Amino acid sequence: MVKVHYVIAVAIVASCVACINFSCIISLFYKYINRHEIIDIRQLNWTSSVRCSLSNGTRLCSFKNVCYLPKKHLFLFTLTEHSVLLGLSSKEDLKTIYLSSVVNHNLMSMKIAIVSNENKVTENAMFIDQSLFLLWRFKWDNIMHVFHDDLIPLFLTYLDICGEISRCTSKYTLGFVDRGEGGPYHELYSLFSNQQPLLLHKYTNTVCFPELHSGVLSSSVWFQYGFGQTQGPVNTSVPIEILHQFKDYVVHRLGISKKLVNNNAVIFLNRKLNRKILNLEYFTSILYNTVKEAYPSSEPKIIELDLTTHNIALLIEVFLTSKIVVGMHGSAMILCLFLIPGSVVFELLPFGIQPENVSFIKAFTEITGSEIVYRSWVNCNETLSFAHPEAPPLLGGIYHLPKAKQEFILNTKIVPAVECCHDPLYLFRMFQDTEVGSDFIPRFQEALLAQQLFSKETVKTTYLNKLFSSWYFPAPATNVSCTFQHQTLTAMWQPSINAIDSLIYDISILLDNNTILSKFTPYPNLKINLSYTAYTAEIWIKAVSFDSESLDSHSKCQRKI
Ligand SMILES: *[C@@H]1O[C@H](CO)[C@@H](O)[C@H](O)[C@H]1NC(C)=O
Ligand SMILES: *[C@@H]1O[C@H](CO)[C@@H](O)[C@H](O)[C@H]1NC(C)=O
Ligand SMILES: *[C@@H]1O[C@H](CO)[C@@H](O)[C@H](O)[C@H]1NC(C)=O
Ligand SMILES: *[C@@H]1O[C@H](CO)[C@@H](O)[C@H](O)[C@H]1NC(C)=O
Ligand SMILES: *[C@@H]1O[C@H](CO)[C@@H](O)[C@H](O)[C@H]1NC(C)=O
Ligand SMILES: *[C@@H]1O[C@H](CO)[C@@H](O)[C@H](O)[C@H]1NC(C)=O
Ligand SMILES: *[C@@H]1O[C@H](CO)[C@@H](O)[C@H](O)[C@H]1NC(C)=O
Ligand SMILES: *[C@@H]1O[C@H](CO)[C@@H](O)[C@H](O)[C@H]1NC(C)=O
């Protein structure tokens, strides 16, 4: 490594002789530090090592000295006599390191080739002196997937491996393993990367890194798209607090400052390309009138937003300052993550589509402790629904299908939960345009009423109760002592410090190595009349409450002779 730095330093000095101004020197510096020299990595005494751990079933690995072969999308692990491999039970474990959080999507794993220094593959490699964090973006151009499948799991993984987000974001540069572009949400990914994220497939030469992390936690995931099962919500095992922290982190890093909440602002997410609302004038007028009726003291302000025309920081800022969101089902709904407590999300869905099956935002609002009111309206009137059988298959077209299949689709009026990803019935119904009917009004009125009845305190209490029922267990009894007096054995202890009403003590006593007695008592003491004169007693006490119990406390006593 010393050698590389020397080469770089010489190169910079040599180039600077011909370089006359400061910014030129700076740009030369970056040229060498960021783009680096092409070297034969083998001259560096190159040895790979790895250390893995399981975090609730997900493998997280930290590698040293690993190269990436872009033409074959392979990571090269150079095995030498100095390699250290820890936390792996066999080579099979090196095939199950997942670079994405998406449930059951096994394709997105790290592909490793074990090589020796004799292999020529690391010749002419480029050494990049950065700690890389590998991520396989699931759908880098879709804001919903960017948040739900990449950024939130990344945030969670950073918390897990670094303890604090900033420790990871100042250490790691993201390395994208998918074959995508930087994409429209590059700015968001950058918030989780020390330097601009690297698109690994764009390199022409082999690239080598001194350090590399792989493995992404998926326990924040609350929706799955139907890989190996039908689509629908997943019970996330992540507390809502993590999602709140994620939101705060993004807001802070985007430099969005706290603004006053505009109580009469209504965000209207309008889709302009497909899944459109056709009678916009009528729709915005009933929106306006219903909000005005519910909140008569102020003039409603309808803010129409669209992902294609507004930048992400601006969109998030508007979500932070509004309390009512209405929109047709679509990826922009994910921005409801940024709403403040007591906001209402009203989702519209095309004819035949069931929110229970498709709505990731409904699933989000059902996470315990989410402080958002969710309601939906599904178009129930087929004459107000406008399908596009002529469209390309991925936008709901069906003309490419056999006649019988087309008939089947046209005659199916409710779409069941489907498996991913190109179910033509699902796409056909999902890409219908809609004329909103007057039956929207009572649903929306009810949603606004529910918003008025919303109580942050109730949500907090429910959440706290859920936390306690998941995590509470009694502390052990302490200071256990026992004494003999005639035929009586007396045991005493200090009560469990977090005892609750239902708590009892489960006591086992072993007399003279042969008789076992079991007793329960709610009190922190016990007197037992023995039927014979015992000489020694060992006593174990467990504090028990409902289905949770403490660790055992133990004591031993002997009759004084
Ligand atoms: C190569 O590196 C290993 C440790 O990684 C070290 O023990 C060994 O001495 C090094 N060999 C040379 C020739 O530098
Ligand atoms: C999530 O958990 C709750 C409570 O345990 C259960 O009622 C519900 O059916 C679960 N939902 C899913 C999608 O597994
Ligand atoms: C651990 O994983 C299991 C199975 O995936 C899940 O049910 C559980 O909730 C997870 N626990 C935590 C604390 O994430
Ligand atoms: C799809 O939605 C229907 C209607 O709410 C529900 O009965 C069904 O269980 C859902 N399926 C899945 C997989 O969530
Ligand atoms: C469906 O919409 C059409 C056109 O507006 C209307 O004539 C019809 O009564 C509606 N049907 C129902 C069931 O509301
Ligand atoms: C319990 O035992 C600890 C030492 O193990 C002692 O410091 C403490 O005073 C005892 N408490 C009582 C109430 O006896
Ligand atoms: C109980 O067992 C221990 C070890 O097994 C032994 O030293 C002790 O004498 C026994 N006590 C009685 C009362 O049998
Ligand atoms: C134990 O014996 C004493 C005296 O023989 C008696 O007063 C007491 O009620 C007995 N206690 C129990 C729990 O049987």
UniProtKB/TrEMBL annotation:
Glycosyltransferase 61 catalytic domain sequence ranges: 235-345
GO molecular function: protein O-acetylglucosaminyltransferase activity
A Pfam cross-reference name: Glyco_transf_61
Name of the featured protein: Glycosyltransferase 61 catalytic domain-containing protein
Recorded topology in the membrane: Single-pass membrane protein
GO BP: any one term: protein O-linked glycosylation via mannose
Species of provenance: Gryllus longicercus
Transmembrane segments: 6-30
GO cellular component, one term: membrane
Entry keyword set: Glycoprotein, Glycosyltransferase, Membrane, Transferase, Transmembrane, Transmembrane helix
Intracellular or extracellular location(s): Membrane
